């Protein structure tokens, strides 16, 4: 089915002999997930046999010379419409009828008996049929979706018809018939234009909302994981849709359910209790380890299910059914060394001296690892993906323990408490040490940035209840605390600069660490006493580990892993060479993780039991999202309640909202609308929806309140058709304002003689009643009307055909002096998956169980709003004190990352004299000569403050040569920027000039060389793009790099254009939608909130998304009156990344309740017109590029040649071969060798038009 994804119709051979017509038709609405017989048409009095269904002829019957049936016909521009040839019964027969479906094959009705050609024009606005065999001069057409049919005589005598075509493009209303005289073969081409039948352009009130969904069971509103709403012309409205008619109103991804998945290859469906599940089929199994699987590699382990191809659902049960990532079997060894090189993990066997490489899928930047030796589980942290992963080396199962989704997260170290089953991690980004409970997957921050600055390594001593860490921040040190985070102290503070690696000798209870600045490996007691240097034969050590009597470490300069005897400090020995980007190193053997009796073995802590170094040697504590009231009493903050592992708000909904069972609030108009808006189904509960009450001007239908004018209008708006049943006509004419049609339809009296067939039987427009006759289609041009355009060649076309990119006149005069414009589709609103909640600005989603865990998952920090103050120490703040009392390190102030809950550490008043400390490619930042893993902004070079451990940023040979450019400033003028800077007086003989370099948001760097000037105008910039600018001195004495003297300030523009708020506002029946700015122009802006403002209302109404589902109820619930017209506008509040907030208000629009739109009498300010005669100017009409226009002209040229070709032939005999033609196919006419009859075949557009 063209136009709607996932719907297919097939013909199945159910008998052994094809000739006996053992063919049945089946339909699927989920791309083959489920198949069913096609429901027989409802307008049949009785099926020929019991259990009969509709069977449709397809390509097989078309090519069969005994049948020559016309194949089914559907178009992308007419979604949901199908017209087909077939019959009702047990199988396909040779005596066909023509059937039509308007709802994508769910229901059908018979329209004709016999063989017909058929086609659509104007998005399905007109359906035409003509008899296929025999002779005829009658074209039957319908403009109300096949409810009624009209007859048009297109020729004076009957013809033998060989085809019915339409012109390319959706603007057309022209049908083309080609045939010949029956007595002597002479080609005749006839064109019938239905434009006059349709009349004027459609207005907003001429459309209804149609949902593409599987309504067979009245519940499924999603097709292939999408919920799509279309705008289709009301069948009772006779008007012209037009080429620029926009079909889809919204297309949202649905939450994944079991219906979105099929059984995977090798599995079959089987009933287990009340559920239908996928189980292995017979002896086949894809669950065995693949033969190619090697240790360290991974393969997909099927769950038995696969998502239906093309399905676009998200979230829900997707993780449950997707394949699992399993590791290939890994032989267990007893003594080994693990080490990582960012994108690889290796295991080195101490006995065999062999290494195994772990090529982990999706692994990008692993810097830390740990092992549960007893369970044979490898833990590793990826700082690019912000996740901690567990790999079971016994089963191959891979699982994510923690996904943090925050750009600031930087997991530097992992350490496992093998006695109590908890995993500790060190986050250098937030300067925190946290814990994960592997059983319940709860987490908690134990030590925060009030104690830590730049933590790197982390080690645990579970038997002592103590943890240790290294910190290489402003005050380098080695610290320790109880394993619950209490009693933090510094144990090593002297003669220490860059303490990278840290290890514990559990046999002798000694600490070992490596300093990359002093180039030493040292050790001490657990309290920092008895300090001893192990070796100075290191260059740049990173990680360190203990294996029995040896110390192992990786060296960045030597690019190797080395070892040394911890007792006898002899020369180091290289164990593994060619270790590039070596990061964490950990050694394991049976005696390392021996589990003794733990103080937590006999406790009943609900969440965490943590060992400590003082009596009673353990402490029960709560996860970070709960409040610890002591004595293992954990509660949710405020009035929230704890359910299923997370805190849920006891939400109080407003009067115009509905409260879901899960605590969420939704607009009251969303209740009982057949959509599961609550996500738990409570808004569609039968006990609630069965008692829905509608206002006096509406009636209840499928749990929805529809306008009374939709009842008894001849159109089934209710699924069960109840709105067209028991239609009483007794009171139709009593008020003198209505007219009773012969078919019992009641219409307003002013609908009489308005040239619209409102009765469907033509009685309201009959010649006896009206003083005019209904216009019929004509093949001859008419005198141009007031709403038509007069072409240079004398033709008349619709006035709205001007500048549509199509040659409607035939001489292209309607396309002269046109400009091209573009149109942007509306933004698809964000939807959060189950278990996730919206950030306040609706720009992202975060996990509910991460609320108030001290980590900012939302850009606006709303997941940490209204939380109780996090635990801090009582020590005085040595850094920057936030308004909340929280203490953060001074180096986190003005670093373009919000650390204070209110964001004051990044306020302009605080950061007015600082530059953005952001890592950009050279020349906007630099690395130290000995790379310490960080990048620094250029203004930190030669600023007399040492930032690099090797002091390369203050090298006197570099810094004494010249002063740098300073006070860089700019001025924006559309697509150019004028840069200005200052530079101290220098000798011109030493200066080549200046280099201007700028970086765009795509990472492209452009360099411009200038003379010795102090300003420059950079041109040809994109008006909607962000740029970084820098200016450097090109000094003759500096050969290594021209960028050593880059400006003090790296300049970042905010983009030249700002968001323009809501636009392209569209009004439907109690439904409005709009578009919002999107794309790269506005990446630095966030939407804070949206407000609907209407006059005559006391307050303002906050809205979400880009549409309002029930505008009438929304106004009434906010004090509106149904008889009034409202002047409304939409306000959107934005904020840029620098904290600047501003509002943008849309153009006003007029709205009258219950689908009446008021057209302003004159334009005031920036008002938008919505009248039927002016709305066309509100939608861009020139969407076709010059290349496409040239192609269309070529197609018209070919089409005219085709006409001349047909007329050029004189037939000699009866027609022997025919074919079908799609709208987009060209045609060739010719004679086969040895035959008298013409032959018609289809060929592609890139082939020539051949007449043979």
UniProtKB/TrEMBL annotation:
Disulphide-bonded residues: 653-665, 660-678, 712-727, 741-759, 784-796, 791-809, 803-818, 852-867, 882-900
Main location: membrane
One of the protein's GO biological processes: post-Golgi vesicle-mediated transport
Family affiliation: Belongs to the VPS10-related sortilin family. SORL1 subfamily.
Gene3D superfamilies named in the record: 2.10.70.80, 3.30.60.270, Immunoglobulins, Low-density Lipoprotein Receptor, TolB, C-terminal domain
Xref: PANTHER family: SORTILIN RELATED, SORTILIN-RELATED RECEPTOR
Source taxon at top rank: Eukaryota
InterPro entries associated with the record: 6-blade_b-propeller_TolB-like (IPR011042), FN3_dom (IPR003961), FN3_sf (IPR036116), Ig-like_fold (IPR013783), LDL_receptor-like_sf (IPR036055), LDLR_class-A_CS (IPR023415), LDLR_classB_rpt (IPR000033), LDrepeatLR_classA_rpt (IPR002172)
Residues passing through the membrane, by range: 1175-1197
Subcellular location: Cell membrane; Cytoplasmic vesicle, Secretory vesicle membrane; Early endosome membrane; Endoplasmic reticulum membrane
Membrane topology: Single-pass membrane protein; Single-pass type I membrane protein
SUPFAM superfamilies: Fibronectin type III (SSF49265), LDL receptor-like module (SSF57424), Oligoxyloglucan reducing end-specific cellobiohydrolase (SSF110296), YWTD domain (SSF63825)
Protein's name in the database: Sortilin-related receptor
SMART domains recorded: LDLa, LY, VPS10
LDL-receptor class B repeats: 465-508, 509-550
